[in-house]
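#random but structural
TW: two for the price of one
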Amino acid sequence: MIGLKVTDLSFHYPDRTQVLNGINFQIEPGERVGLLGPNGAGKTTLLLHLNGLLRAAEGTIQVGDLTLSDEVLSEVRRMVGFVFQDPDDQLFMATVAEDVAFGPRNFGFGQAEVDRRVESALEAVGESDLAPRAPHHLSGGERRKVAIATVLSTDSALLVLDEPTSNLDPAGRRELVNLLASLPATLLVVSHDLPFVLELCPRSLIIDQGRIVADGETRQLLLDRELLAKHRLELAYGFDPANIADR
C-alpha cells in the first residue's frame, strides 16, 4: 500500500477553460477515500492526473516516494491502477485471461510470471473460472470485477475507481463493496452513489468548481444537508447516514 499527496494542482484545457484550481489533499497508505461532487466539478479530470493520463499546468502529484514526472511515468502507472466507469473501455481482448495479462505482459514480465499474476488477480476478485470467457459475454458485475483484476495483476498499490457501481444490480453492488473493502490497497473512489461511499470509505472529499470544498469523515459530511445541497449532492429518499453501522 502507498500514499498519495496532491499539492497545488491546477489544470485547464487548451481553450483555457479552468477545470482544477489549486487542489490539495493527502491520502495515507491503506486509506479508502471517496471523492464526491456534482457533474462537471472536476472529479474525473483529477483522477486522470494521478497516473499521468492528463498532465497539470501547475502543481505536483506524489505517489508513494515518487513525484510524477516523465522520468518515472511508467513506474507510477504501474503503481496506480485506474478502473474506468465503463468496463468496456478497459476490456478489449478476446478472453478474460488475455485482458488481465495485458498489463503484466506490457511491463515485460515473462510468461510464467504473467500466468501467475493472472491467476492471482482473478482469484483475488473471486472470478478464477472466468479466465477463458469472452468479456462481452459477462454480466455487468463480472466485467467490473475483471476490470479490477486487470489493475491488480500489475500489483497496483493505489486503486482509482470512477463510478464503480454504475449499471450494477443490488447483488453486484454488495459484492463490489465486499471485494473493495477486502483489498490490501489504497482506494480513491469517485461516486454519486452516496450510500456506497459511506459503506466503503470512512473519509471523503467534496470537490466543486475545481476546488476541494470539504474533507472529513464521510458520515459527518453526509449528515450536513446544507453542505450537500450547496454542492448538488443528494441522498436517496429515506436514507439516513446516522443509521448505518461502521464497517
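TW: number two ↓
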Amino acid sequence: MKRVAALATLIGLAACQAPGPISIPGLTRAPQSADEALEAYYRTLPDDFYPVAPAGPPLPAADKALSRILVASCLDEEKGDSAALRAASALPADLFLMIGDNVYGDRDGPAYATNEAELDELRESFSDLAARDDFKALRQSHPMMVAWDDHDYGMNDGGRSFPFRRLAERIHERFWGLANQDVGAWPGTYYARTFGPEGQRTQIIMLDTRFFRSDLTPTDAYNAKGKERYMPSADPKQDMLGNDQWTWLENQLQKPADLRLIVSSIQVIPTVHGWEAWSMLPEEQQRLYGLVNETAANGVVFVSGDRHTAFLYRQDGILPYPAYEITASSLNVAFATETDEKDAHQIGAGYPPENFGSLDIDWDAGTVTLAIRGNQGEIIQETTDKFR
C-alpha cells in the first residue's frame, strides 16, 4: 500500500512538474523536482521489474574489420511472425543495428495520461518482444547495437518533456544489456563502438534523439502535404541532442575511423515532409553538418528509420564529401505499397513494404554499398558511396 500511495503522489508530481511532500526510501529530503522524486522511486524497483532480451552473441572484436552491417526499425511486437526479420536473421552479417520503434509500447496513450508511471504497457511490450521466435532467431544470429525512438521510448513523438523518461531509459538499457556498460552511467541512451584495425576501422555512433530533445513546433495545416505534423523552427531554445550529447559527439568525431555511421532514429537529410526529422530543427541540422566539417570527420554516412518507408539519399555541399543516408523502415508495420514522396536529394523511389537495410563494405575499393532489401532479403535498390 505504501508503494501505491507513493506512486499516486509521484504521478501527480510528474503531471505538474513541481515538488511536493513524499516519503521515498533513499531520499532524505524533499525532492526539488519531479525528475528527482521519480528517480529516487525508480531506484527502489527490484531487478525482476525489468524485462530482459534473450542472450545473443557478443559484439565483434575490436580488431575485426566489418564487411556487412544490417539495419532495421519499426517492429510491432503484437503482429505475427515477421518475414523481414527472418530474412535478416538468415543473411550473413557482422552486426545488426536495431534503431528505434523496436516495440510499440505507447498504444494506450501517453503514460502520464493513463497513470502508468511504472510504464506497464512499455514493459509488457518488451516482454512480448523477448518471447517472439523471430526475434529469438535474430538474437541468436547477429550481434546487435540498438537505439530507441518514440514508441519504445514510451510516448509518441516524445522528447525531454516525457515525465517518465528516466524509467524508460532504465527499461531500454536493462532489456538490451547496456545497464552495466558506459551508456548506463549517463543520462540518455547514446553510445559508440569502433571495430577493425587501422585502415579498416568502422565507427558506429548511436545517437539519442529523444531524451534531451525539445518539443517540435506543431503544424498550422494538419495533414497538409509537407506540413503533416510539424513545421521547421529556428527557435534557439529548441535542441535535438542536449549539451552533454553534443560535446560527446564532437569528441567521438575526432577519434580515428575510416567509415563512420551516424545512427539517428529520425531522418537527417530530407526536408520535403512534415513528420519528425532533423529538418524540423534546421539550426540543429546545420549544427550537425557543421560539427562533421569542423572535426574533419571522414567517411560519415547517416543511418535512420522511423518513416515506415525505406529511402536512399545523397546530398552534395553539406559535408566535405557527398553525404549519404539510408532509411530502413519498417520490419512489419507497412502502411502502403508505394509512395509519391520525392525529396530533392532522394535516390529513386521510396519503398513502403516490409524491409530492412544493408551496408556492404569493400575495404580494397574504399566503398560502402547501401541497399534497401525486401522481406525476403532481395535487393530492391542500392547505391554506392566512395568513402575513401
